[in-house]
TrEMBL record, chains A, B:
GO terms for cellular component: cytoplasm. InterPro entries: Kynureninase (IPR010111), PyrdxlP-dep_Trfase (IPR015424), PyrdxlP-dep_Trfase_major (IPR015421), PyrdxlP-dep_Trfase_small (IPR015422). This is Kynureninase. Pyridoxal 5'-phosphate binds at residues 98-99, 130-133, 202, 205, 227, 257, 283. One of its GO terms (biological process) is quinolinate biosynthetic process.
Amino acid sequence: MKHTREACLIADQQDPLAGFRQRFDLPANTIYLDGNSLGVLPKGALERSQQVITREWGHDLIRSWNTAGWFDMPTRLGDKLAPLLGADPGETVVTDTTSLNLFKALAAALRIQRQAHPERKVILSERDNFPTDLYMIQGMIEFLQQGYELRLIDEALPLEQALDDKVAVLLLSHVNYRTGYLYDMAAVTHSAHQCGALAIWDLAHAAGALQVDLNGADADFAVGCTYKYLNGGPGSPAFIWVAPRHQNAFWQPLSGWWGHAKPFEMATDYAPAQGIRRFLCGTQPIVSLALLECGLDVAREVDSQQLRAKSLALTDLFIELVEQRCGGHPLTLITPREHVRRGSHVSFRHPQGFAVMQALIANGVIGDYREPEVLRFGVTPLYLSHADIWDAVEILREILDSGSWDRPEFHRRGAVT
Amino acid sequence: MKHTREACLIADQQDPLAGFRQRFDLPANTIYLDGNSLGVLPKGALERSQQVITREWGHDLIRSWNTAGWFDMPTRLGDKLAPLLGADPGETVVTDTTSLNLFKALAAALRIQRQAHPERKVILSERDNFPTDLYMIQGMIEFLQQGYELRLIDEALPLEQALDDKVAVLLLSHVNYRTGYLYDMAAVTHSAHQCGALAIWDLAHAAGALQVDLNGADADFAVGCTYKYLNGGPGSPAFIWVAPRHQNAFWQPLSGWWGHAKPFEMATDYAPAQGIRRFLCGTQPIVSLALLECGLDVAREVDSQQLRAKSLALTDLFIELVEQRCGGHPLTLITPREHVRRGSHVSFRHPQGFAVMQALIANGVIGDYREPEVLRFGVTPLYLSHADIWDAVEILREILDSGSWDRPEFHRRGAVT
Ligand SMILES: Cc1ncc(COP(=O)(O)O)c(C=O)c1O
Ligand SMILES: Cc1ncc(COP(=O)(O)O)c(C=O)c1O
């Protein structure tokens, strides 16, 4: 199909989600294709933070733990998030970081397996998984000294081959952070269960990007970020979910007072709270939680089918435009073309990917760069339009055609990209 | 000594720290004696949060990781806090929660001991320690299954007797959360080292309340809260410190990408960063960190000797006034009278402590209640005056003399106190 900017504008007029753009404060003269790294600012968030800081903290002080509902925020926000994950109330809490929640989920899963299948010592993940997932597994294995090992799926070892009767736990990202590859959660979980393993899903690049169906897929545990597609703000606390069947059976070692059945009895011995609260540990950053709630409140209003349809329409458009209009340049698509295998971002390799991305940013198109050579573009249906995609690709084309990316300042590496 | 309100007013006029009260927004008609649970709002904090939310997040978005210095906040804030702890730059980071940092410090200490003294299997703490400290130890022991056990100091087992050649790690609170008892950190650490144990200190009720001297005391690890005497805001991230001698030797299992030597190389294998950064794990709540910085900026200006002198003067005054003016009531001081053994809060037992505290709160004197029967009063020298102490005790006296605490509504228990 041949695209034009006019056709993009018409598609925008017909877009049922177009109104959501007004719910966010977006910077002028910017096409923001990095909402999969840090989401944007919901319009009510500043005011909400002022309330929390001035009235709840400044004026009501310690009483706000009760009167402003601070104490219940992790479960309340978890329940707000649940529908987006295919979860029921009481199954999710918002707390800590994704990295830490990975540790808790992994510990809980290993402990279940220690009882059911003590001989299983393999934790299976993917070489191309986000590094923190692998690092948390490595940290646990080293610390436990119980003979666990990390096995990695890669080109040489596909999933079907890697899943055997040694595997205790399978830990995968639903959407790959680099390529955007989307696993079939139900099928993979089924395979894991068939072989006696438990399945943990990292939803960092899935939650808020597409409808997840944790209960439908019969998953065991899940974790994820809220500062990406959920627009919770920089470093907003993460979430963790547990399947109903593990609710009162699971246990995890980061067992602080917030996970205690009666935290204010100040008992000497730990006794876990019923259900999901036992994934809580210590006191949470309330202002950051309150900001996150603003993002969740927007996300909950979105029709998930419309979200997915627009996400696929925009990622299709992006891929087709790049291939049509930047065809002569050494760009290699690493995101699946198949809809059922694609998340909500698009990545291309380019031998000079780093410099090309710096040039894009300097020209108002903000994506990010990921080693090795990957230009990554987050496509967030809530605040991007078809015309944004058109314009972004035009700027990419100009940069590539003119060679303007090849300036010294675009090759200089900063601390973080 | 016989006190009068006039004498209190004169003492306030001579108070070199009196000006600090102006640095905070305090609620009207309230005497806030709970700054050891949740500190107050520094005046610049609201504006700072607006900057972070509107400009750094809303406008600059992902770029702020570099341009606004978000990436360095954990170490930068750690270095700001360091002088209050008797620490040098590069030894402290601000991150996660006190509970989680306890786990990291304990794991790091046990790992050092596993190499030095593998036969030592006792983790020594105190029955009266804050529960989360005990729960984190219990969680780790259960998870490791390496034969560790928790031994608790109490009336039947004093420290000198409990410290033997089975002890791997001693974990104590510098100031007890309930009684305000202050350990001699240098002497206790010395005893621990003499017997071959490592010492971890929980500074939750010490940091910002009195000058701590971690390096002077030769401590091994320390953790603590920032939302109490440091006025960081509700749930502001905690800190963790490591002694220079362990800097590049220690290791901990919550080894997320933020603790990696090169987090953005996306390597498959974890390789720890040099120094204190290896205590970092995942992405931190930036807005809550920025608010904390406002509290730290005030705390850093305070002369630590003046702080300690005023803290002791006010806690002395509080104790003497209660004993003089509420003498006929069944109040039992559980805070040490000795200056060198006292932190910055004062606690009394009263058989109806819960109801008495609710009546105090209803009358504008905000302290808190801790099981069993304990009325706890935080004495924060930065924003309390001698006259506040006088007035608070007068209100306590009226409540006790009139018996007005004995109303049904003051006996009703909420979720959190
Ligand atoms: C000694 C001590 N440690 C830890 C905590 C709290 O830990 P967290 O911030 O992880 O909830 C407190 C809270 O009062 C405390 O008094
Ligand atoms: C799959 C995945 N997991 C985890 C994270 C981040 O974890 P944390 O929030 O603990 O830093 C990311 C960040 O991009 C991610 O892509």
